[in-house]
Amino acid sequence: MDILSAAISSVRIGRAEACWVTKSGSWGLRYPTLDVSGFHILVRGSGWLITADGPPRALVPGDVVLTSSGAAHGLSHAPSRLEQLPPAVMGVDERNPAADVEFLCGAYWLDHGEIHPYLRTLPEVIAISPDYEHSPQLRSLTDLLGADLSDAGPGTRATRPALLDLMLTHILRQWLEQNRDAEWPATGDPAIATALREIHAGPDKPWTVQQLSETAGMSRTAFTRRFTELVGKPPRTYLITWRLTHAAHLLRESRAPLAAVARKVGYSTEFAFGAAFRREYGISPGRFRDLAHATESAEHGTAPRFTTRLPDVSGDL
Asked: Is the pTM of this model over 0.90?
């Protein structure tokens, strides 16, 4: 697993949501700073990306806006100042098929998690114009995610995160392709990739920094320095973060006893696991599980929700 894969994997503890946003006439949307990793794709019409400290950027069909760490931004029918735009209402909207503008939006809501440090190395708001001719995957994923929004049948909890994973990965690949000189740590370092792969494959193992450095074929000092430069955290800190990220997955997706979850992520006692989990997420493992399951049972309750209406997107991108 490379660092980009690890970063995408880390956001899966959040709620995977997607929606269509349709607007006509004079319109504007201001998104505040949120604990999300998400994107907007302009499918039809035109608009402008508005940020707090940069000039407005014109958007055309196919353009993508990415906020990997939830920075404040806005979308508008015309150039504007961010503070002048009305707040976006993230509830259920009726789609207007005759609307002038249509966006496909998707995000992971990280209610009790932190944004992976690797994603924080990105610019706060990214706008790209993908090359759909040479890289048609993003067009296909847009159609698939749109189709998924119309399907409320069994399997949606599995398909939605999988499609968001792919969307985020291909959006980031497009940005990397177009910004080869950007200050982005290389994901292909074989020694660090080996250590990451071992951490992700065996969070239950009693890893030490010395063992990880030997796995990577480096001295402990050189390994620690290189790992921290690329990943944004020292090896020990990253190991703990990944263990608890994996634990959050297990708590959300299974009914395994807390003691069993603790063992699966490398903690010998439920008490030690609970203390570490509270330090990371500010909430106990049991409460995290209860809230996650209650939110799903109530169809996201009072949490921000997205519309699930499907437009015809064929040929738009």
From this structure: no
